[in-house]
Amino acid sequence: MGALKDIKVEITVVLGQARLPMHQLLRMGRGAVIELDANPKDDVLVLANNRPIARAEIVLQEDRIAVAITDPIAADG
To answer: What is the pTM of this model?
Structure first.
């Protein structure tokens, strides 16, 4: 179990996607809003080291935002 403490895993939650021309992206400043292709009730994708591991839903509890796993994704191979 001690060896597992030293393993680093980057977790990413993908809320949606957007396509923007580079010139539009470069003109954006602090506080700019990018519209995503997702709805608030859509599942989100959870990645571990850039590999999909689960689908989840966003959960709001008071002033905290959390992710609840709804469907683990089987690893290939």
So the answer is: 0.75
